[in-house]
């Protein structure tokens, strides 16, 4: 870790030790929740020599009040020495463990005495800075006294029991850290999607107006050219009229190209707008099997209504034991439509090949579930994709389709939607044989 990071960590560590060891110097008027929250994580645990556990500022405030009441007429206690026992850091520099031995002097009227305590802290590097998640304060003298006076076997048994407790707490800590990282990653992803949505919506709206002018005026210009050709045909043909007709054909071809690419750009803009809108954000219990049947059917009829329709043998196998799944149905249906459309386009390409006379397009859709996962597979027996192309398939704006047919955003959007559900979208393919998309969702831990 760099010096700045270490200095910030040391500062938070010292403040935390002061807050928990110098309770008698604090009064209710001086308690500052804002300062407290700058030291301790949103979710934290403080353990003392007793079995008491503190998990919020109110409990800490109550402890200070009780401590002040107890020590009002008692002897003065002062921290006189602090020795570091352990400084440990995670490989990524995001977690630190600090252990210190503290020595206090108690000014007893009869005879001053010294008391030793050990303070252990676990600190995490959050976006707002270092924060303490766990703090434990124990009495060293008490532990030594207990060890000296207990039989060896009993002490070892007690030590083993404590080790098991520590191990259990470590497991809880690791689980908490994993959950925190999952939530953090999910929030970052959602924030990125929201920012990307706002950005693409703004850009798309700005581009759409000039694109409409380009497309409309290119169409009008072609119509004007046709009128000019009609008028030229009424004039006696000579070298000049032939030259003009030849030039008009060139201009007409150029305008058609402009319109073709303008239409493709318009399709990309529409996809960007669709991407930016997202769904209503609601995660609701949904009959996934029914949703799949409905949108596979809808996609098929949409393909049949467009140019170059093909016949497809659709096989849907659903797991009847699948319970309602918490998903955003509007967004998830978009994924089904995208994957089915890609499958139909791929199979159409194979049908149009000269050597595919005996080829029967087939789409297989399956759902299955176990105790932990829900799996959806959409497979076509189209031309498949090569390993080189497979690596690029999920990239935004990458497409294998010709002309204005593809925008290259369908799979990218689908992947973002599945990720927003805490799931995984995978691609399996064998060139010349099949392409299979596999969606895996967590059954017990659905995320927004």
Automatic annotation (TrEMBL):
<dbReference type="InterPro" id="IPR036097">
    <property type="entry name" value="HisK_dim/P_sf"/>
</dbReference>
<dbReference type="Pfam" id="PF02518">
    <property type="entry name" value="HATPase_c"/>
</dbReference>
<dbReference type="InterPro" id="IPR003594">
    <property type="entry name" value="HATPase_dom"/>
</dbReference>
<feature type="domain" description="Histidine kinase">
    <location>
        <begin position="202"/>
        <end position="445"/>
    </location>
</feature>
<keyword id="KW-0597">Phosphoprotein</keyword>
<dbReference type="Pfam" id="PF00512">
    <property type="entry name" value="HisKA"/>
</dbReference>
<dbReference type="InterPro" id="IPR005467">
    <property type="entry name" value="His_kinase_dom"/>
</dbReference>
<dbReference type="InterPro" id="IPR036890">
    <property type="entry name" value="HATPase_C_sf"/>
</dbReference>
<dbReference type="InterPro" id="IPR037401">
    <property type="entry name" value="SnoaL-like"/>
</dbReference>
<dbReference type="InterPro" id="IPR004358">
    <property type="entry name" value="Sig_transdc_His_kin-like_C"/>
</dbReference>
<keyword id="KW-0418">Kinase</keyword>
<dbReference type="InterPro" id="IPR003661">
    <property type="entry name" value="HisK_dim/P_dom"/>
</dbReference>
<keyword id="KW-0808">Transferase</keyword>
<dbReference type="GO" id="GO:0000155">
    <property type="term" value="F:phosphorelay sensor kinase activity"/>
</dbReference>
<dbReference type="Pfam" id="PF13474">
    <property type="entry name" value="SnoaL_3"/>
</dbReference>
<protein>
    <recommendedName>
        <fullName>histidine kinase</fullName>
        <ecNumber>2.7.13.3</ecNumber>
    </recommendedName>
</protein>
């Amino acid at each position: 870790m760099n010096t700045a990071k270490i200095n910030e960590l040391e500062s938070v560590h010292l403040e935390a030790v002061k807050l928990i060891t110098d309770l008698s110097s604090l009064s209710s008027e001086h308690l500052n929740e804002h300062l407290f929250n700058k030291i301790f994580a949103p979710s934290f645990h403080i353990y003392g020599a007793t079995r008491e556990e503190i998990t919020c500022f109110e409990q800490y405030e109550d402890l200070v009040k009780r401590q002040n009441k107890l020590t009002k007429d008692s002897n003065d206690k002062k921290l006189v020495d602090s020795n570091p026992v352990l400084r440990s850091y995670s490989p990524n520099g995001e977690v630190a463990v600090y252990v210190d031995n503290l020595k206090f002097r108690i000014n007893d009227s009869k005879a001053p005495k010294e008391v030793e305590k050990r303070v252990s802290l676990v600190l995490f590097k959050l976006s707002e800075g270092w924060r303490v998640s766990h703090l434990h304060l124990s009495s060293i003298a008490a532990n030594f006294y207990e060890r000296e006076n207990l039989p060896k076997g009993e002490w070892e048994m007690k030590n083993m029991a404590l080790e098991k407790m520590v191990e259990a707490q470590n497991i809880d800590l690791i689980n908490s850290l994993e959950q925190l990282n999952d939530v953090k990653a999910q929030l970052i992803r959602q924030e990125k999607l929201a920012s990307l949505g706002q950005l693409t919506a703004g850009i798309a709206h700005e581009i759409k107006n000039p694109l409409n002018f380009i497309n409309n005026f290119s169409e009008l210009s072609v119509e004007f050219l046709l009128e000019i050709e009609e008028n030229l045909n009424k004039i006696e043909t000579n070298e000049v009229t032939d030259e003009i007709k030849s030039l008009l054909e060139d201009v007409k071809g150029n305008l058609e190209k402009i319109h073709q690419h303008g239409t493709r750009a318009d399709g990309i803009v529409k996809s960007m707008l669709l991407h930016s809108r997202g769904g209503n954000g609601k995660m609701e219990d949904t009959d996934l099997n029914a949703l799949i049947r409905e949108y596979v059917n809808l996609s098929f009829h949409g393909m049949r209504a467009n140019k170059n329709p093909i016949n497809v043998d659709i096989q849907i196998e659903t797991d009847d034991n699948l319970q309602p799944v918490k998903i955003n149905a509007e967004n998830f249906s978009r994924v089904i439509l995208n994957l089915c459309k890609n499958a139909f386009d791929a199979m159409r390409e194979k049908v149009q090949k000269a050597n595919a006379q005996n080829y029967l397009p087939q789409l297989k859709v399956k759902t299955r579930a176990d105790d932990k996962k829900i799996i959806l597979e959409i497979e076509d027996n189209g031309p498949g994709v090569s390993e080189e192309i497979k690596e690029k398939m999920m990239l935004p704006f990458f497409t294998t389709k010709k002309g204005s047919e593809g925008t290259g955003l369908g799979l990218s959007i689908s992947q973002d939607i599945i990720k927003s559900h805490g799931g995984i979208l995978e691609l399996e393919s064998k060139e010349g044989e099949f392409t299979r998309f596999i969606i895996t969702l967590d059954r017990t831990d659905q995320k927004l």
